[in-house]
Amino acid sequence: MKRLYLIVFVIFQASLLFAFTNVHISKADFERLEAELTALSHDSLRLKAMEKMALTKQDSPDFFKYIKDMFQEAQLQNNPKYLCSSSYFLVIYYYNIDNPDSVCKWVNYLKPLAEGLRNWNVYFNAQKTLINTYIYKRQYEYAINEAQKMLDKSDALNNMNGRVAAYQCLINAYHETSRRNEEFSTLLKIYHFFPSIKDKLDKVDILCQFIEYFRNIDQCRKLKKYIDEALSLIRSIVKEHPDMKNAYASLSLYLETAYSDYYTAIGKMDSAKISINQARHYVTPQSYPAYLAMFQGSSARIYHAEKDYDATLASIDSALYNWRKSDSEQMSYAKQLGYKADVLFEMGKYKEALYYYERSNHIQDSIINVISGVQMDEIKSMHHYDRLLLEKGKIKDRMQTMILLTVGVALLISVLYMRRVDRVRKALKIAKDETLRATHKAEEANDLKTHFLANMSHAIRVPLNGVVGFCQLLASDADIDPVTQKEYSDIIQRNTEKLMRLVNNVLDLSRLEAGMMKFQIIDHDIVQLCNDAVGAVSLQNSYLRINFTSSLNQYMVRMDFNLMMKLIVNVLANPFQDKSEEKSITFTLDRTGEILCFKIINSWLADVTSDNQETTMQNDINTLFLKNFGGTYQIINECNSFPTVIFTYPAHFVE
Prior knowledge:
About 70% of the residues lie in helices and about 5% in strands. The protein is built from 23 helices and seven strands. It starts with a helix and ends in a 5-residue tail after the last strand.
């Protein structure tokens, strides 16, 4: 996942050499400057020389030593300008070695200096690095929050560099959390400013973000425009700064690999081979593993198009090896496993393909769950922090008011003052107790909601996986015999019906709980309705033998006909019951005073063996529906009796 903002950093680091003018000096000049440094007094000339030396050594292990010396000298002279530049170099250094804690420390030190000097380019670049560090640490909501603040500040200053940096950070955060709509809309916003962006490196960065977006959604046919523009800009930069050619090797590998994916997507395999061979020239021992994995994955797609399965699998395995080197690239690793499963399935190796499909789905589900959990924790933490600030402000205002009142009362009469203090203390204790009770209730509600969502996620995923999986089998294998095709179609149909039933039940339950269910009340004979329900169930479920008896011949009641019919049908018949197993149900209807009593013996909704999320939800729907009209709903599943459902409905007779 880190590769998107690694692209940003590759460009960012490459720009450091010419971020300051006339800083590159020869080896002989460097040695002479180092010798002269000891004779220079502690003033700005000494700091300027140290800055040149540090920038010249940025590609060597001595870079840290020179910028640390420069920072200490700037501290000694108390020079804000060079304190700002040296701390900026430290931010870049720590970002380069993946030390996020030090990045945060130095960015927070740097920002007040840059703001005081009104050096907004350094300010926004440092903030951009910090936000990308949050993203790398999976603190996505913090990153989005900070990016929004940076966007507001840059808008207030009308600073284009800050605005572009803020949008880039938002794009990175949306990309990592798979918010595709927000990612694309933000890309369109930043592309709107494209003609106004003067820095070519920022333009390359934006184009790479477009490329990564379309690659991620498998829209490689749209890549060429952005690759052409990015390569053109890189060539012009290298032409202006020839010493930067090696700095763009990794980015060139990335772009040439993207070219190969584009040509493969449009079916021009000869051009794809040319691009992949061109990309091979940029592969070095120092190449970033994610770029190598992308290169090997593109090679696999070319071999796959030529039906060279051995070479395809070898390239996929190489890509998997490189994806696995980085913990932040596990989603790409999982997708590569899925591609390997597709190839194995195409080769007819179904067992191996199933193994890799399961691994791929397991890893992707795990990553999504982790990201969701992290985001939820961040949102809770941010919400808690905001509440603390709000409470702190309220308490502060309250205390100031109390002090003023106390002073005034103390001047008048000490007895009233003591009573006032006592009343305030009691009020605070009551408020605290109420707050604790409310917090406890909110936590219980949140736990219930979380448990419900987790169960529903699993309940929905099971039939959905059945539909998707067998649809893929039907679509990918043209040689399926008619019997197997019919079997797969029946499975898809059953899972689709189960999924629709589950979704409809969730909607009904939500409406009933929110009090938003709309009822269509009519007068109808309840005995006739029960007979119709029994007939409909018996017609569709031949394995059921329903014995319906009623002490009433006819009884008109005000009710919602459709929902009452649905309730009785649902209590009588399980839509997913094994049709080969016969079952006997006893259904009785009686009236006791002003209450109609319905009793269904051997109902599947009361059977402990079929207790699951669906039965629980259906029982909750039935309970809420009847409660809305003053009725009751009860489940009886004692050991010495048949599972029974008993529900009542007001028997207000309609003339």
